[in-house]
Amino acid sequence: RYRLPRHALRIPYTPPTSCRHRTYSNTSRLNKPIQISEAVREALVSKTPIVALETAIYTHGFPYPDNVGLAVKVEAAIRESGAVPATIGILDGIARVGFSQPELERLASTAGQNTTIKVSRRDLPFVVGMRHITAYNGGTTIAGTMLLAHMAGIKVFATGGLGGVHRGYPNPMDVSADLMELGRTNVANTFEVLETQGVFVGTFGKAGAKVMLPAFYNRESNIISPNILESPRDAAGLTTIPDASHTMGLTSGQLFCNPIPEEFEIPAKDINKAISEAVEKARNKGVFGKDQTPYILNEIKEITKGASLPANIALVLSNARMGAQVARELVFTSP
Ligand code: PSU
Ligand code: MN
């Protein structure tokens, strides 16, 4: 198979016609590695509230075709809440900030293909650098998405599940890059699952009440939330800190936790049993690293006979709406 010499990546070069169809993607080598959609650009320029969204949840966290439906619904929820969605992911080897609906449907429908990669911080240079050779598609994880959102100047990001410290740590020593990214990139987030350090963490709830950090499929974990946010405005007030903290040299993110809507909660004893079984099965099968969460999510779906999906959808939509409200407050309160 023809391979492009490494140095050729740096100079304009058109391959001979004879090998073009076999070895080159239809993506021009002169295409910019990062592209921001017209809608997101306009929103940035006009200071319209924007919410960034990840795509690994579609390519690696949800089965097809539910993932396509979810992708479309999440964007709609953000628009209905008065903000502009900026879905972030890799399409044909290009890091995209903002997708059209057909593009979004196309990316989600490539879930499961071996040229569709789960893209965290470490994978970005690979998928983007290889774009002249192989047109990879990719769902960006929270870490990958935060990095690109920050680059584009987007301050609020909504999602479902944050990567964490896998059970059994330090054996295996598997800690998601999501947690490291929150430590160094100042983008605000609404999430569910949570193990973190060095980052502001607050949970939406009533001041004075005992507010627990939410678990994923149910509203309460057994950890008390270090802070309470009474409203999206509280969260926005905190998010303006990045501007101040920038001058102080602080570049960390903030994590705003939003418990799953009550009516979609799965009782802790049921879901914890499913999670333990799924984790156990992953371990026995030797599934590790980036494959672990997708495998476990799929097992939980099987064990709960599909009941985990509506819960997951509900919490993501609820977070999207909350993210939009925070982004709106941020626009109103920012200088
Ligand atoms: N948890 C979920 N659903 C998901 C993910 C986590 O309930 O889709 C995805 C997110 O994209 C998250 C990523 O950023 O998994 C974390 O993967 P890793 O542990 O490989 O960093
Ligand atoms: Mn992980």
- Give the percentage of residues in beta strands: 5-15%
Sheet/helix structural class: alpha/beta
- Please tell me what the overall shape is: globular
Mean pLDDT across every amino acid position:
85
SSE arrangement, N to C: HEHEHHEEHEHEHEHEEEHHEHHH
User: What is the total tally of β strands?
Assistant: 11
Low-confidence stretches: 4-29, 192-197
The biggest beta sheet reads: 11 strands, mixed
Which key phrases capture this entry?
335 residues, alpha/beta, 11-stranded mixed sheet, 41% helix, binds pseudouridine-5'-monophosphate, binds manganese (II) ion
How are the secondary structure elements laid out?
Layout: H1 17-23, E1 34-36, H2 38-45, E2 50-53, H3 56-59, H4 66-80, E3 84-91, E4 94-97, H5 101-109, E5 116-119, H6 124-129, E6 137-140, H7 142-152, E7 156-158, H8 177-184, E8 188-191, E9 200-204, E10 228-229, H9 232-239, H10 241-247, E11 254-257, H11 268-285, H12 292-303, H13 308-333
Parallel strand pairs: 1-4, 2-3, 2-7, 5-6, 7-8, 8-11, 9-10, 9-11
Antiparallel strand pairs: 3-4, 3-6
The structure holds pseudouridine-5'-monophosphate and manganese (II) ion.
